[in-house]
Fold each of these.
Amino acid sequence: MRFHVAEVGNSNSDVFDTKLTKTGPCMYDMASMQNRVNDMFRRQELLGKQYLKFEDMLQYKLVIDANGDCKNSQRFSKLLLAETLVLKSSGHSSTFLTRLVEPWKQYVPFDENADDLAYLVRKLLLKPMLAEKIVKSAVEKVSEVLSPHGMLYA
């Protein structure tokens, strides 16, 4: 999924500055994915793009959280708290938090096949007030859920 999203971004460079982030260890066999990972990083380098460190993602007004091969990733909660608009791929839920936040209220969902991704980004760029409202709601909700009180009752 992450690779397909990167390809969509690369083919819509007028609105995307798509870069992959390196991920940590996953529960799945990373050796089987290594060739795909290396191939995508090579293709991005050919486009003049280096991989992006997670903390460097936070400089962007909009970030994409594509479902990957890791379960229990904490990336989604960190992105929602970072005051950046998060586009999250639909499909499997990777954390408990995805069950507690609402699409179009705390994040923007996109199709698992990413066919609507370019359209959504263009739409959101034209509606900055909507994006700001979603970001504010995300920070409020996730701060509440991840507070000591929220963790007791989540």
Amino acid sequence: MAKHITPRALRALPERPNLERLRKEAKQRLKLLRQTDPAAALAAAQREVARDYGFPSWQRLVALLRPIAEPAPYPGWQYRREKEIQIGEAKERGDWEAMEKAYRELIANTHQSRPDNRDSLEADYALSLVQFSKKPEEARCIFDRLMRKPTPDILSRYALFARMLGEVDIDQWEAILRRAAALGDDAMAFAQYGGFLWQVRGNRSEADYWYRKAAELDTGFSGIDAGMRGLYATMLWEWGDPVTAETWFHLAFAKSRMNMQAMQAFAGMLTAIGRVEEGLALVPEILSHPQLQGWPKRIVCGVELFGWFLRYAQGDEAMRGQALTEIRTRFNGFQPLGRFIDLGRNARAAAAAGHPAPDLVAALAKALQADAGGAAEAIAEVERCPAWRD
């Protein structure tokens, strides 16, 4: 797979990339090339510019910047949103009967023309029946029907279903995901396979290839495209390549700013690499993000704690005082959401910058990204810090 890996970016795309600016940059590069090679062609200059930004060709870069038409809201979108909120709230309070009822009502009224269509919803419902309601046989009936004509998306979800029930080993799990990725251009299937290769196999080069394939697809839906590009950017930051990651964050935001996780990851990256003012400037947008409207309280609380954590870890003295007050207000009864970016880098950056309470910053970072099993000890570690008790 190494031949598929594109070069690391030497610099990131600007915050609001556009084709006209890139074309002008390529013409300027051509003038420089012709100083040493009078026969140099524009295509060579364009290729060099693309490679500076981490792309193998000019055509690949240009394709990602072409604007797409945002579709009008599909019939019943408000109803779907309301049902999704009901499902989330039911899961939060452990009311599996209410969760199932909301799923069934949503499935019965789902419009078929969307990429998140009825079959995908039924697969999600089946996975929830296994994970929460402990009804594997009912879930199996759903997947038996869906697998008669499997799509890449359904195959990817079936792979998770079979793994949850212990019916496949790791190799069989991968075989299903690989089949899903080969079945057609499907961003979710590509991303699922990339996630498996990285999280289970530990194979970054192959994971990079599939994450990037997902990010480069133009699905026709800006929210999906932005989500895939934000996911790839987050993984690039995870792998220690902030320059290329920044390019992909900008490509994500050029499509849509509705993906809050991408915005959180970008803010976390900027503050961790010393671009504190830029990173903290994103926090108000995160804390007032439209996606938070109607979300379960524990998720809203987690997002708010993330924003105030960045302000406490990387802000000035006045900002730290207010941030710690806000964190204390929300910390009682906090339920960690699990790790999605490495906040430990922010903690190390804060310590290196001379933060007065680096032990508390490190403990908060650990608590905010703890899983369910380690949550109690992580929270206790925060409460043991002198700065927390003062």
